[in-house]
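COURSE: Structural Biology Practicum
ASSIGNMENT: Worksheet 4, Part C
STUDENT ID: 0417
INSTRUCTIONS: Below are two proteins. For each, the amino acid sequence is given first, followed by its structure token string. Answer the questions at the end about the second protein only.

PROTEIN I
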Amino acid sequence: YVGQIATWTAPIRRPGTVDPVAYAALPRPTPLDEPVWRKLASMNVLPSERAAESTLLRRAHLDLIGRLPTPEEARAFLSDPDPAKREKLVAALLDRSEYADFQANKWADLLRPNPYRVGIKATLSLDTFLREVFRENLPYDEFVRRLLTANGSTWRDGATTLFRDRRGPDEIVTIVSQLFMGVRLECAKCHQHPFEVYGQEDFYSLAAFFGRVAYRGTGLSPPISGGEETVTVGDTGEVRHPLSGAVLEPRPLFGAAMAIPPGEDPRAALVDWLTAPDNPFLHRAAVNRIWGDLFGIGIVDPVDDFRATNPPTNPALLDALVAEFRAGGTDQKKLLATILRSAVWDRSSLPGPTNAADTRNFSRHYRQRLRAEVLADAIDDVTGVPTSYAGLPEGSRAVHLWTDRKSTRLNSSHEWISRMPSSA
């Protein structure tokens, strides 16, 4: 009302009753379980039963490394009497090389530029950077810092490709706010955001953190941009309000303007603000995206649309995830291990008598489609017929592909069948 927004939510309980003893008996191996069970109790809904061990084995492989377990791995796991075998499985999967490739592949989809706009070599450089991030298990805060403060050659410093693709402060801030803050600011570029309190001054003040980004070398020359470019930070550079023409100082959302001295990188000040312990954006957006990857739907959904008019379905669960993430030093492997140890993650996808209609409260595991690369690799594994990818070494898998404009011919279904061994 008159520029102010408030939200109010109320659960609509399922008719009937559920014995409180049933909720008390639910397992709580992690701090993430209690907020979910408490929400379900308020909705008069019971979660599904625990999934079969064979299902959990397959789910863990697909969630962490993006490939199916082999028959030998399945037999070994199912015959193992160790009660801690699931924790050991998760630890082993997180230590495998496929983890880095799978996670980097996801981020490449989020950040990937058109290779014929920025150049094939710059695109490969970005992909190499992402795979190194996950091989090193770089803390999320450090990953964000390296990416958003990147300087150097687009051929050797892969993170700089972000700034080669997004040229102006107004272009850069839209992807930064959406990926790392979970806030879709693009509407505020031209007018007051229709569903939030953000306006043009907020948009361009945040964009001003990128006002000093400068370039040397060969710029873009689509359809083939083959040259090398160096991303630097200059002593000057400003962002003006598009209507008033006023020069705007860098200012974070809901924060005070920052005076950045000449010679200092304004982007570093932005990252300092983002990674501060009390920042309301970065870690909430990160854990929500991770949770959404695993469960098929975020606590805030879409995962990159945090706003007052799109509240989380379970604020206590989101807070618990953020607390775990920060306590673990923003180590994504630690957070994944905690989630996969939870009783919420191991629920069956089959509904019970009370939760067939639930699609938002995580009372069961929601089925989701496999990623394209995962599906292609799964077909190779099941049929025993590997695909050969142009430009990659023999034995490479779909998850190793680093550009979506690949000169690779995927076989049609009848070709798959004709190539299958007779015993398949």
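PROTEIN II
(use this one for the questions)
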Amino acid sequence: SYDQYFKTISGGIGVIATHDQQGQGTIFTSSLGLIYSYHLKVNRKFSMLFGAKAAMTNKYLNWDKLTFGDMIDNKLGFISQTSERNPNRTVTNVDFSAGILGYSSSFFIGGAAHHLLEPDEAILNPGDSPLPMKITAHTGAIIPIGSSSTRHKRRRRRNPNTLPESSISPNILYQKQQDFQQLNLGVYVTKGPVVGGLWYRNEDAFIVLVGLQTTNFRFGYSYDVTISKLSNASAGSHELSMTFQFN
């Protein structure tokens, strides 16, 4: 993915491409999307962002990778041909998403809607598998702590977007897609370039993270500690991320 701000249009333009293989090459999903965002400076302390995305998605099923019950011989195993019909179908859809965000140097609030047209993903029976719309809402704050609080107030008088040297940042993220709901509660603690954080994902996992951030560079490590019934089958997951930000 890549995105860039252009002053002439008061916003940003981006592109995002993904390619995913599942089941050892059974299902292939590719997507190419274009993103546009509009930046609105409401006043000296508060701004808003409006974003939209249009994507073309292609999904392909490799029928030769599948096995069916009627192919099994009780003694010899998989030796027969299946009577299941091969759909020879590649699913191609156009997908749209949109979002809005309001923010200042001390808080943010926003929301987004993905899969606005609920595109059909069915390979065997067209019309049977619409992708449900996903709704996301999120909010958070940045609270200066310690001696940083006084210095931050003085620096903000000169530049309202200045971030504090030390801060605590509570965050809330809510997602809903059809019958599935998820609530994430988290907090970040920043001391100079060092960032630590803890998230709780409802009835599923705790997420611990640590990282370094400067004006142009960010590096982070996080670990998901599974607490649901999947804990016996999953030892959690690790993630490393690295970001470079150019002028």
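ANSWER KEY EXCERPT:
Q1: The longest strand covers residues 27-41.
Q2: The chain has a mean pLDDT of 88.
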